[in-house]
TrEMBL record:
Keywords: Kinase, Nucleotide-binding, Pyruvate, Serine/threonine-protein kinase, Transferase. It comes from Saezia sanguinis. It holds the Pfam family Kinase-PPPase. It catalyses: [pyruvate, water dikinase]-phosphate + phosphate + H(+) = [pyruvate, water dikinase] + diphosphate; [pyruvate, water dikinase] + ADP = [pyruvate, water dikinase]-phosphate + AMP + H(+). It is an enzyme of class 2 (transferase). Bifunctional serine/threonine kinase and phosphorylase involved in the regulation of the phosphoenolpyruvate synthase (PEPS) by catalyzing its phosphorylation/dephosphorylation. The keyword Oxidoreductase does not apply. Its EC number is 2.7.11.33, 2.7.4.28. This is Putative phosphoenolpyruvate synthase regulatory protein. Belongs to the pyruvate, phosphate/water dikinase regulatory protein family. PSRP subfamily.
Amino acid sequence: MSVRTAFFISDGTGITVEAFGAAMLKQFAIPIRQVRIPFVDSVDKVYQIIKQINQTMETDGIKPIVFSTMATPEVAKVLHDNVKALHFDMLKMIVDPLEKELGMESNHYVGRFSDTAQSKSYQQRIEAINYSLEHDDGQSSRNLEIADVILVGVSRSGKTPTSIYLAMQYGIKAANYPLIPEDFERHTLPPALKEFRSKLFGLSIDPIRLSEIRNERRPGSRYADLLNCREEVAAAEAMMRREGIRWLSTTTKSIEEIATTILQELKPDRLGTESA
């Protein structure tokens, strides 16, 4: 099957349109080459992009797929009228019906998200990222009382990427703390975590997958040995059940799915704060 090229074009960063378009394309079992092109905010720039897309059409011998969010109508029209591609103007598809329903025109503000750096939610995300980095892998037990969630689990079960994702996307102050053999021998939580039991959420993983991940980092070590991984995972899950800690297996789940489950279970107060 031929690889299909998908372009994600925006007058902003293009992150949003790429996330949406990529999610739509995942519904189809076809190979996709993704190209994100940000900051296309003038007619001159859009003509350059049209040339690139049309050249791709000639090279691939098949129409590229284009997802775009262009706030300026003139720029959006030039793209739509001249591009040789299957084109989805995401703003037109959504904004036009909204204008009709609300009885008003949108402001067509280019780079609408550029002012988020001044917003409360943006500052919360920056603070949360700094907090999560400081409290990664049990580096610090200072200020755990202000954590929104504390992730626990064996090493390489997905705690770090999940905590960073929660911080970046939701402004959640997520600490993460490894469960180690000494904890299993004591049959109790690390002392620093005991008073924060209500904030704990556990991550587990299939031992075979854990062994594969650890072998990438420390091949041939006891740390990566399958038997050791089985023992650690079993001990960690037993501790979570004993301590009444909610947990899930990360084996087949994306970071987005893991984070969503955590937020649904713990419902941090921070999600209810004003975002503007």
